[in-house]
Amino acid sequence: MTGQELLREACALFFDSDTGYYEPYAAAQINTLLADTFEVNNNLRRAQGKPVLGEILALGTLAQEIGYEEALVRSAFGYGLASRLLFDDNDGGRQAVLEQRYREAVARCDRGWVRLARGTGGR
What we know:
It is built from five helices and no strands. The chain is mainly α.
């Protein structure tokens, strides 16, 4: 998934089809999500027998692929990006719900790798 695709998904969560206003901020906000979920992403990679990433990835442009495990990006990043884009919109209720859903999705991914690792002999 590219940063632009993620931005479209995030905006759809708060019913905005015009991503233009958010584009200048989106890559930086996606980069915060990448930093926030670095260890969870590496846990997922370990559980699947893939090499871990040595450093946190960062998007330079929204056209780039995000580069983290698809399960994490698809289940959590849309909520996380939407939450961050709404942070200063005086809409604390909706922003808080999106942030909570992001945190829950990340936690599900983190717990999921433990089940996968146990089933495949990993640690």
